Sequence to fold (246 residues):
Amino acid sequence: MKTDILGIQFDNLTREEAKEAGAVLLRSPEFHYAVTPNPEFILAADKDLEFQKILNQADLVLPDGIGVVYSAKILGTPLKGRVAGFDFACDMLDVLDEMGGRLYLLGAKPGVAEEAGRRILESHPNIVLCGTHDGYFKDSDPVAREVAQAQPDLLFVCLGAPKQEKWISRFGLITGAKLAIGLGGALDVFAGNVERAPEKWQKAGLEWAYRLKKEPKRIGRMAKLPLVLVKAAGRRVTGKGRQGVL
Fold:
C-alpha cells in the first residue's frame, strides 16, 4: 500500500512490517532495492525528476525522518510511523544472519567500511562479509564489477543522496545482490565514528535535534527541513496535496 507524500510514494508500514517485507526481498532470487527518503530527499526530488523516479520505482520506500511523518499528517494521509534507515539496516542484518548470507559494504571514508564490517560481524557471526569499498572513487564500473565478483546477498550503498540511489539504479542489477539499500552515513554509525541519538530522543522524534547538538555545522541542512512542512501545508490549503492512498 503506497501513500503519496509530496510526490514520493511511501510504503505505509510499521518497522516490523518493513522488516517482514525486506526479508521477503532478501530471500528472493531477483534484485531489489530499498530507499529511505527524509525531508531533504523530498525537496531534492521535487527539483530532480530522475531522482524522484528512482525513489518511486524502489521496491520499498520507507519514511526516514519525523518531517515526513508530520507532512503526511498535514496532508491528511497519515503514515503508521517513521522507519529509520539505520533501524531497517539493522533488521536486514538480523535476517541475513539467520540466512548465513553475504554482505558487501560500499561507501564512507577509507577504512570506515572495514571497521563497520568488523563490528557487524561481532554481533552477527553467521554473516559472511564478502567485501568492502570506500566511497571515494571516480569510476563506478570497476567498483560495480568488484561487488558482483563478491556475490553479495545484501548490499549497503552509503554515498549520500541522490548519488547512492542513482548508483543503485544504474549498477544494482549488475552487482547480483538480492537487496541493495541506500543508507547515507550509516557506516560511520556502525563503525562507531558517529553516535546515534539515545532511544528517548528517537521515540520523541528528536533525533535530528540530537544530531544538530552534536554537529552544529549541520544547521544549514536542518534549516531546510521546515520547508517540507510548509510545502505540505500549502498543498493541503490548495487541495493539491491530498492525493490519497494507492
